[in-house]
Amino acid sequence: MRILLTGGAGFIGSHVAAASVTAGHEVRVLDALLPAVHPRYAGRPPGLDGDLAGVELVVGDVRDRDAVDRALDGVDAVNHQAAVVGLGVDVQDMPDYAATNVLGTAVLLAAMARAGVGRLVLASSMVVYGEGRYDCPEHGTVAAAPRRRADLDAGRFEPPCPACGRPLAWGPVGEDTPTDPRNTYAATKLAQEHLAAAWAAGTGGDVLALRYHNVYGPRMPRDTPYSGVAAIFRSALEGGRAPQVFEDGGQQRDFVHVDDVAAANLAALTAAGPGAGLRAYNVASGSPHTVGDMAAALAGAFGGPPPEVTGRYRVGDVRHVVAGPGRARDELGFTARVAFADGMRAFATDPLRPPPDPSAAAPGPEHRG
User: Fold this and answer.
1) pTM of the model
2) Which of 72, 157, 289, 336 stands 20 to 30 A from 247 (CA)?
3) End-to-end CA distance of the chain, in Å?
4) Predicted confidence (pLDDT) per residue in 88-100, tens digit
């Protein structure tokens, strides 16, 4: 199969490229290599060199209609990883997120319709759920209300029941959980799903949307506010600093290794699709841990210093969100293989991607921290 892989020079994209080539597929990468995301490389980007030197690299922006049309020539399926990622800095990031994640996806989908390409694997995210699932002892399953600054300032991080104010018990979210995006990145990832569903309905194509949970592993970007928490902690440790854990460290997350994420993409590429529609899949380990647990495991594997719990918070963060991975197991045959302890031990010494050009101010298309 000939695949167009957008954002294929990025963290997850380069691992998807390697897995696809190993499986015998022909891969063409479309990546803008924007200096706000990528450092200046002497040759091909890390992850697309060495054994992947034969992968066709097209330098172009997913928002450029002509570049996308050329990249789709002769393609059987598209794997769409290109996106601005992470929670970002503040609302001034909104135009960059919308331009790449929403407009870029729309340009790609329109070009796929012109080219007659009917299979899309879409890199989505668990952030579309907002908060995870919560149960109240009196009111059953409830949607957690947005957390209030006053509560967060007072160190009250757990969302209360919106009906009675009692403490809630968290649980795993399934793919049919109502979506509730609570920051700019989340809103744009859900918009990608909506656009892809509209494309599928209009063209008869199918979309497998992979809702990644917290991905970590080799070649994560370092020293950038758009990176994932694992890379931020790892960068601190390399600088001799203690990882700074926000809130009380009790936030529940599912940390999934990038090799497992690449395997999920490979499974989705050849799986039976929904047919003229979109089907979402949680891509997760199924073994949740707290952010504090992750920081402690990584610091222990690295050799310290131990993490510091700060009580600080970020507006737009959610308290708990973990996934039920059953649908991906049953329909895609995907099960995560990398255990948390093994993954953190390896990540303590995994190579990270150098920081981008410091003179470039805005983020650009690649996926994901």
Assistant:
1) 0.93
2) 336
3) 28
4) 667 888 999 999 9
Say how many C-beta atoms besides its own lie within 10 A of residue 137's C-beta.
Answer: 11
Specify the DSSP element, H or E, that contains 3.
strand 2-6
List C-alpha distances in Å: 92 to 82, 189, 190, 361.
20, 18, 20, 12
Please check the confidence at residue 367 and state whether its pLDDT lies above 60.
no
DSSP state of 227: S
**Catalytic one of 97, 129, 185, 313:** 185
Measured in degrees and rounded to the nearest 5, phi and psi for residue 122 equal: -110, 125
340 Cβ contact list (under 8 Å, min separation 6): 255, 285, 287, 289, 297
Distance (Å, whole) CA 348 – CA 165:
41
Catalytic annotation present for 226: no
Across-strand partners of 184? Answer: none
Distance CA 106, CA 207 (A): 14
DSSP string, 113-131: HHHT--EEEEEEEGGGG-S
